[in-house]
Write a structure and sequence with these properties.
Blueprint (H helix, E strand, L loop, with lengths): L22 H13 L2 H16 L9 E3 L9 H15 L1 H11 L16 H28 L5 E3 L9 H30 L4 H14 L6 H21 L3 H21 L12
Parallel strand pairs: 1-2
Length: 273
């Protein structure tokens, strides 16, 4: 498989907003979108990290919990909360689709999140997931062993019939939210505001790292590296489709794999008892 730009790519962002918006208005739009989504998560993650640093004991003695039960002992209510959380987390993506539709290029089609090239998206997504996922797992184990990372618990859901469908839906939600907003939308808007490509990619990568800081220094650095790779791939392909596929596959393997292996292999860190 040879990497190449897709046929009929979405229009490149103009140097200035095409619909008459001022730079100030466009900057305000970006800040509001981030404040309603992953920018707010970055601030929350920073506060969480400061709390972990100032808590007695090392980072490795603490845990970061993902996909936890919202109503222990009440599986149907728990399922309702899980589905509510997944669906509402995607509202900022709908907002971005609305904002991009003003450019007259089909909403999320402007950032390459559509069904025009499924084989390209899934094929390269799988390749990227295999490379990034393997390196990321190794980096996490090294950071945890070095005391720079909390113990990440990808899931602690009850053993009920909806557990794995919810984990998969959560992984897809994470992928869509992050890649559409932090890569596609943000890089497009920064380009329209006149940012150089390198500066925009670095800003996107640092933002990605910021909202993973709750995992520790390793989580921050690992996700900055992932963000740089994803940003460069987006500049090459002009599509977030492969990046969404890659991110979803990485998270599915992490969530489901942890559920199947935790406590059964000695190399996989688990939260302190």
């Amino acid at each position: 498989m040879r990497a190449q730009a897709p046929d009929n790519p979405p229009p490149a962002p103009a140097a200035f907003p095409p619909d008459g918006l001022s730079r100030r208005t466009l900057r305000s739009e970006v800040l509001l979108v981030l404040a309603l989504s992953l920018g707010a998560s970055g601030v929350s993650s920073l506060i969480s990290f400061v709390g972990a640093l100032t808590k007695p004991g090392g980072l490795g003695d603490q845990a970061a919990h993902l996909n936890s039960s919202q109503a222990p002992g009440r599986p149907w209510l728990d399922l309702a909360w899980q589905l509510f959380g997944i669906s509402t987390a995607l509202v900022p993506v709908a907002l971005v689709a609305h904002l991009l539709a003003r450019e007259g290029v089909g909403g999320l089609r402007a950032v390459g999140f559509d069904r025009r090239r499924p084989a390209f998206d899934l094929g390269w997504g799988a390749v990227v997931a295999a490379c990034i996922g393997g390196c990321g797992m190794g980096f996490y184990l090294l950071a945890h062993a070095s005391g720079f990372n909390l113990t990440v618990e990808p899931e602690s859901l009850p053993d009920v019939w909806w557990k794995y469908p919810v984990l998969i839906a959560s992984a897809v939600q994470n992928a869509v939210l992050e890649e559409v907003i932090v890569v596609g939308y943000l890089l497009r808007r920064l380009g329209q505001l006149g940012w150089p490509v390198a500066g925009a990619v670095v800003a996107s990568a640092v933002l990605r790292g910021s909202y993973h800081l709750y995992q520790g220094i390793g989580g921050f650095l690992g996700n900055v590296a992932m963000g740089l790779v994803f940003g460069l791939l987006y500049q090459r392909w002009k599509r977030v489709g492969p990046l969404v596929a890659a991110h979803a596959l990485i998270d599915i393997v992490a969530f489901v794999g942890y559920s199947l292996l935790a406590g059964k292999v000695d190399w996989l860190p688990t939260p302190p008892a």
